[in-house]
């Protein structure tokens, strides 16, 4: 397992992160969508992850209505002091007028609830789960800054922000002298490369680290789906994130060829592609079954050559969109020089 610096912070995280969205009990709020591990399997997954070298675990207040945080806290136990916990706020399953969002009221309430469920007195990385259009960013940033100063939070991150929202948040934090976001958690996969349009350029320019979620597009890139009929799985009842199936099956064909040549699984090659992409700090892997997690952990050992990366890049390429299809104008370019002359 390799470890990478998280943005411009002094924190180093493993290149794979264990996601705990499946940590739930049978009949729990996420069980019907994500599946449910139960506490015994959740603890085993944490054990396997630590043995593989993972040092960071991702959860959220909304995952299974807080059960995921509780299970993660119990699974880590006394090892918590040596591990990093990332959790989130802003989304809730309740419906009160002040329950949702990243207001000062919500942040102070949710951090205390998460600390209690996790059984810890600090959170290593506290992430705003989504952009809140109804709360001034200044209010959110000042509240998060207070949590860092109080010692309840070590670092702050964001998730599901657009490129302009990331830039605005970073600029405002600098202006206010507040704690800056060190990371962005976003969706990215071979069948979902939209991150490359605005978000990835923004975070790389500003020096943020990245956590990639749904790297297998909720199982589409697991290797169990085929043109002649999709296998039963999470996507059969929850077809998200959206996938261009025509392009997707072409990507799977290339993945399968590379996987066969490397004696690896399709999922491992799809994860390895992300680990080789510039700007990716850590890829979040999760599973409903132990064998799925073991397979995903093996992606850290898959090396892809330039030719293999080029094949995967070509088959999964985004269609150019304005202004991306316009030529870049640089000093010294022949076109620029002719116009200047």
UniProtKB/TrEMBL annotation:
Kindly give the CDD domains that the UniProt entry links to this protein.
Answer: AKR_PsAKR
Origin, by domain of life? Bacteria
Q: Which InterPro entries match?
A: AKR, AKR_Detox_Biosynth, Aldo/ket_reductase_CS, NAD(P)_OxRdtase_dom_sf, NADP_OxRdtase_dom
Which EC numbers does the record give?
1.1.1.267
* Entry-linked PROSITE patterns: ALDOKETO_REDUCTASE_2
Give yes or no: UniProt keyword Oxidoreductase. Answer: yes
Q: Which GO terms describe its cellular component?
A: cytosol
Classification via SUPFAM superfamilies: NAD(P)-linked oxidoreductase (SSF51430)
Q: Where is the NADP-dependent oxidoreductase domain?
A: 15-316
The GO terms describing molecular function are: 1-deoxy-D-xylulose-5-phosphate reductoisomerase activity
Task: Provide the alphabetized UniProt keywords.
Answer: Oxidoreductase
- What Gene3D superfamilies does the database record attribute to this sequence? NADP-dependent oxidoreductase domain (3.20.20.100)
This chain belongs to the protein called 1-deoxy-D-xylulose-5-phosphate reductoisomerase
Species this protein is from: Profundibacterium mesophilum KAUST100406-0324
């Amino acid at each position: 397992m390799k470890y990478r610096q998280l943005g411009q912070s002094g924190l180093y995280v493993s290149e794979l992160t264990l996601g705990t969205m499946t940590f739930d009990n049978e009949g729990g709020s996420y069980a019907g969508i994500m599946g449910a591990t139960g506490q015994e399997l959740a603890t085993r997954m944490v054990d396997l992850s630590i043995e593989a070298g993972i040092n960071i675990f991702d959860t959220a207040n909304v995952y299974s209505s807080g059960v995921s945080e509780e299970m993660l806290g119990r699974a880590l136990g006394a090892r918590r002091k040596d591990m990093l916990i990332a959790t989130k706020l802003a989304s809730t399953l309740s419906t009160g007028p002040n329950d949702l969002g990243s207001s000062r009221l919500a942040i102070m309430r949710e951090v205390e609830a998460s600390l209690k469920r996790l059984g810890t007195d600090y959170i290593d990385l506290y992430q705003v789960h989504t952009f809140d259009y109804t709360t001034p960013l200044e209010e959110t940033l000042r509240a998060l800054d207070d949590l860092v100063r109080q010692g309840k939070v070590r670092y702050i991150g964001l998730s599901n922000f657009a490129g302009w929202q990331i830039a605005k948040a970073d600029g405002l934090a600098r202006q206010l002298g507040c704690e800056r976001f060190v990371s962005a958690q976003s969706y990215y996969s071979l069948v979902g490369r939209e991150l490359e349009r605005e978000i990835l350029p923004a975070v790389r320019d500003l020096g943020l680290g990245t956590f990639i979620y749904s790297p297998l597009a909720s199982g589409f890139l697991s290797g169990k789906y085929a043109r002649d009929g999709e296998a039963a799985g999470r996507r059969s009842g929850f077809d998200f994130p959206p996938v261009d199936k025509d392009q997707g099956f072409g990507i799977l064909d290339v993945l399968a060829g590379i996987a066969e040549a490397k004696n690896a699984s399709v999922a491992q090659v799809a994860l390895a592609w992300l680990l080789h992409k510039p700007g990716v700090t850590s890829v979040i892997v999760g599973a409903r079954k132990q064998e799925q997690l073991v397979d995903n952990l093996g992606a850290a050992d898959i090396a892809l050559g330039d030719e293999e990366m080029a094949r995967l890049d070509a088959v999964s390429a985004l269609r150019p969109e304005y202004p991306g299809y316009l030529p870049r104008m640089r000093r010294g370019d022949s076109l620029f020089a002719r116009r200047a002359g």
